[in-house]
Amino acid sequence: MKAMFSKKTLIKLIRSNMVPLLFFVICLGGVVASKLSFLYIVNEIVNRLDRNLFLVLSLIIPVVAGMGLNFALVIGAMAGQIGLIAIKVWNIGGILGLFLAMLISVPFALVFGYATGILLNKTKGKEMITSLILGFFAMGLYQLVFLLFVGTIIPIKNPEIVLPGGIGLKNAIDLSLIQYALDNLLSINIVGVRIPVASFILIGLLCLFTKFILKTKIGQDFRAVGQDMHVAEVAGIDVDRTRLVAITISTLLAAWGQIIFLQNIGTLQTYSSHEQVGMFAVAAILVGGASVTKATISNAIIGTILFHTLFIVSPNAGKNLFGDPQIGEFFRSFVAYGVIALSLALHAIQKNFDANIRAESAE
Amino acid sequence: MGENKNTYIIELREIEKEYYGNKVLKGVSLAVKPGEIHALVGENGAGKSTLMNIIFGMPVIFSTGGFTGEILFEGRPVEIKSPKDAMELGIGMVHQEFMLLPGFTITENIKLNREILKDNVASRIFGPKLKTLDVAAMRKDAKKALNELGMNVDEWLPVAGLPVGYMQFVEIAREIDKKNVKLLIFDEPTAVLAESEAEKLLDAMKMLAAKGIGILFITHRLNEVLAVADNITVLRDGEKVGSMRKEEASVEKMAQMMVGRKIERVEKSKGRVEKSSEVILSIRNLYVDMPGEEVKGVNLDVYKGEILGIGGLAGQGKIGIANGIMGLYRAKGEVYKNGKKIELNNPRKAMENGLAFVSEDRRGVNLMLDESIELNIAIGAMQVKGMFLKPLLGLNWIKLLDERKVRENALKYIKELDIRCTGPTQKTRQLSGGNQQKVCIAKALVLEPDILFVSEPTRGIDIGAKKLVLDLLVKLNVEKGMTIVMTSSELGELRSICDRIAIVYDGKIEGILSPQDSDTDFGLMMAGEYKSHSKEEAL
């Protein structure tokens, strides 16, 4: 009897963590097949966590507030890039430049986030697809501004970043003036693994902030609105405003996340750095076991580790298995989009499964 | 006079409300004193819920043009424009469908949007929204409210796993935790409760009334009314048809008042086939998981050539039966047609087996509103039976729409059913409700079903068109011998055309009545008290 029970709980445990477990197995296979050294992989994972975790964490609050996965992270990332372009123009580097970029991105992120929120409030129930398409639309506007307005309306003359014709920003902007500004501020080496302590402190602070805000009145409102807008409204909570706040916070965090990401990379791909931000962050948190209705900090951390492990090992695994690194490359994007589709499908299967159980136990 | 007025907590005067030209409240007045339990009884659609929504300032009232009449709260005229206004006045509401968040604990639900907060560094700088919740204090309050109701449940449990009865008490605890509550509205609080739970709830109500809180109790369980109410008001079709003190009331009297209406019977012509005793459809142990209309074990036989009515109050599961058989909601159980088992959860199989369904959701399920009448009529048969298709250049595996046949078919039905339209290509969105319903029926008829399920065929249709739709159903039954299973909230309509009427209560068939049976029987059955009541009488 007792054995039966524990078996049942085990099955339940596996079923509820199906996605992370599945990816853990794939990662394990990939690590073995890639024949990379363990130290190399760990170093890379630490590096990727440093780069991406902030962005992934910024997804949590909108999920709690019932707005699904915020693909409009892209728009926040653009705000961050505006900050970076500004410090490049003024040529302010180092940690000072980094924080200045963060500061400059704040008003942009707040305005963008607020506008996104207004739109999402008009499309309740379809937030994910709206934010995805909104991201694409914003890319168009972004290109308009930085390809056409720079040099004409916006007076930027710096030949290092402006195209030879004097109009529009170059495709790639060197950010070496702030590269590793945060990562090298305080960094230690443990058995060959370089750990950027300052960056992780910042990420830790974000985790604390997320935890803290969910314990406050506004956090309680997020959770109430996320569970049932109607009930929240009848209880007197201003649903629209609460959702606005949630998406604005997320957008702001995405802006800062993108700045941290790019200080690690060291080059701003003016027209494409932001492109995949939403997609990759969403994929990572989904791999970590989050769903469109539930996301936690541990989902974000586990997901980022698993998703990026797969990214690290797949080119080598592809080369070793098929004799062609290109297949590994292909496998990467296959993984990114496949993950989203798979975990959404698993989520639906889970729901269907639960409904079946309910129908079965109708008596 | 002035003093007298002040003794009422709330007084409603001549309340009238219209929804899209449909008058649902026609000058209702009532008043509640402190410590009084005032019961409001009536069928669905009698206007009870609308009245409550008006008192509680629900947004649905104002988004549909407001209401006329006067509300006095403690003798003063008030305007209640939102639930917040109502709460500030001291009106609490225990909702019929739980207003609880399943993922929150009992405490969090009781304190929803009234959380006890404490300052922290961030809130001092950035404002009160960042104050932290004082969970300990909240739990203490919640515990107190629960204790007051005699509830012995841990206040930190999540609501999701609680038995329904407990959820109802959590709702009440939330209301009494509001310090200034003077009037409590209970909107069918016992509808989802088991008997013992319901008794506990009634005790709690009495206890609250004894504290001087006025209670407005909406229900259709008539014995409960007798058990607790001081005064009773009966509504029917938006009108107050009676009010009495408890001493004057009896279950029969209330049942009759609730249902009583003139019934016009659409007489069937003599040429119709006598009702056979051949069972065409037999339903065994049917469970349907349709939210709000759950079916919990229905056994029912449908005889060939009859019109069977399925009636009952909203939320009892009558709508779920047809939806379950047709595969639109998840169902479990057995359905046999002419002895052959029909696969459930598969709408296509149901249609292939000669069943057709005109859903209660005319605009959502039945029609493609932006498509033409002709396509709407043809689409079902096209999909299920492969009608109206022709092969492309003799290739059988590429089928094209046979527009000529679609048109001919549409013209035939437009004439036959007298669909008023500009032509077969008119979009169905532009049709009136009655004509839309005819298109739906035509669509079902093209399938040439043996059994036609019709749900709420006259909902949202004006009176003239209602009769036409009902006449059409009778005509189909008489002339084509079609078996019809009609589900409707309007008892009068069921009694006007059906041969037998099954009344659903709590997801099961409470009983089957003939249309000529008394109002009292119908009333008792719909209130789920037929069996117990007749037993009592037998004793």
Automatic annotation (TrEMBL), chain A:
GO terms for molecular function: transmembrane transporter activity. It comes from the Bacteria. InterPro entries: ABC_transp_permease. The chain crosses the membrane at residues 21-41, 53-77, 89-112, 132-154, 194-214, 244-265, 277-293, 300-318, 330-349. The lineage of its organism: Bacteria, Bacillati, Bacillota, Clostridia, Thermosediminibacterales. Its main location: membrane. One of its GO terms (cellular component) is plasma membrane. This is Uncharacterized protein. The keyword Cell membrane applies.
TrEMBL record, chain B:
Its EC number is 3.6.3.17. It comes from the Bacteria. InterPro entries: AAA+_ATPase, ABC_carbohydrate_import_ATPase, ABC_transporter-like_ATP-bd, ABC_transporter-like_CS, P-loop_NTPase. Keywords: ATP-binding, Hydrolase, Nucleotide-binding. GO terms for molecular function: ATP binding; ATP hydrolysis activity. Residues 10-262, 274-531 form the ABC transporter domain. It is an enzyme of class 3 (hydrolase). This is Galactose/methyl galactoside import ATP-binding protein MglA. It comes from Fervidicola ferrireducens. The lineage of its organism: Bacteria, Bacillati, Bacillota, Clostridia, Thermosediminibacterales.
